[in-house]
Amino acid sequence: MNAAVIKRGATPRRKAVVRRKPPAMVRVPLAPRRFARHAASAFIALVLIAAIAAAIVAGLPGRAWQETARAAARSGFEVRHVEVHGVATGPRLEVIAAALEGPTNSMLLVDLAAARARLVALPWVADASVARRLPDTLIVDVTERRPVALWQLHHRLVVIDRAGVPLTSNHLERFAALPLVVGPEANTHVGDLIALLAAAPRLGRLVDAATYVGTRRWDLRFRSGETLLLPEGAAAGAALARFELLDRSTGLIAHGYARFDLRVPGQMTVRVAAPVKPTTPAPVAKPAAPAAPPPPAGTDAAVQI
Fold first, then answer.
1. Is the pLDDT of residue 94 over 60?
2. Which of 210, 262, 264, 279 is most exposed, with the fewest beta carbons within 10 Å of its own?
3. pLDDT by residue (tens digit) across 122-132?
4. Which residues of 129-164 are buried (b: 16+ CB within 10 A; e: fewer)?
5. pLDDT above 80: residue 280
6. How far is C-alpha 121 from the chain's CA centre?
7. Which bin fits 258, alpha (ψ -120 to 50), beta or left (φ > 0)?
8. Residue 222: strand, helix, or coil
9. Structural domains of the chain in order of their starting residue, each with its CATH number
């Protein structure tokens, strides 16, 4: 008797998968004339791109622009006038020369940025702007540095602005009314001096010169000849304010004193000026009672303030 053999673990048969063919692509034939037209357009575009690139490499656009600008200049678009605004103390000719320093006067070729850079490089110019007004005019607006003092260093005078920038050393007679600052680094601290004197305007108007001593403090010289020694740092403002109150109440300025020393806090050392001997003796009235002798000239006397 034949026995049926059953194999365990046999893989069951799978259903057959029917693969579908992808849809066939329909090719639309391109007319020969249309193809030739597209090909010609692409070729012309490539030729134009190559020509433009070659012209840029050879510098032809720049040359064409130069020729156009020269032709415009011959037609009247050329710088013939320079209007300068904002110049009060500086030399106007320097402004005009700086504006026209470029290689050409053609209005189309004037480099406005370069002209402004030349103007700002002038020591007395804080800022400037340059513009065209066709057909033949440049408009220059200048912001000047304002002179505030004369700075003396090593017997040389120069005008400076509030930031201490040297402006000019020519024709200084125009600035004779400005105060004088003396000493190394006095120019870089002139702004502090201006603020100091602005806090005591009555005394500030009487100051003729200021010496920056040891690059740390000021000595003020008044027009009447006295010298006021101020402490350094922030204490200078308080000392000057106290001195102004004393001068209002007792009259220190132009009353025969030579020097006032306020460097010690709460104290003022006073030096009396030497008396001037008269050329002819003057009659002196005899006092009714003996007066106290004045302090000797040239000596210092300290008083509490």
1. yes
2. 279
3. 999 999 999 99
4. bbeeeeeeebebbbebbebbbbbbeeeeebbbbeeb
5. no
6. 10
7. alpha
8. strand
9. 73-144 (3.10.20.310), 147-276+295-304 (3.40.50.11690)
Place of tokens 């009314």: 177
According to DSSP, residue 158 is labeled E
Residue 189 CA to residue 268 CA, distance in Å, equals 25
- pLDDT one-digit tens code per residue, 11-23: 555 555 556 655 5
Residue 220 DSSP class: E
Residue 286 in tokens: 């005899």
Q: Which two tokens stand for residue 141?
A: 């607006």
Q: Is the pTM of this model over 0.70?
A: no
Task: Report, as an integer, the average pLDDT of 249-260.
Answer: 91
Distance in angstroms (rounded) separating the CA atoms of residues 128 and 86: 9
Q: Is residue 125 within a helix (H) or strand (E), and if so which, with residue range?
A: strand 125-133
Strand partners, 182: 152, 211
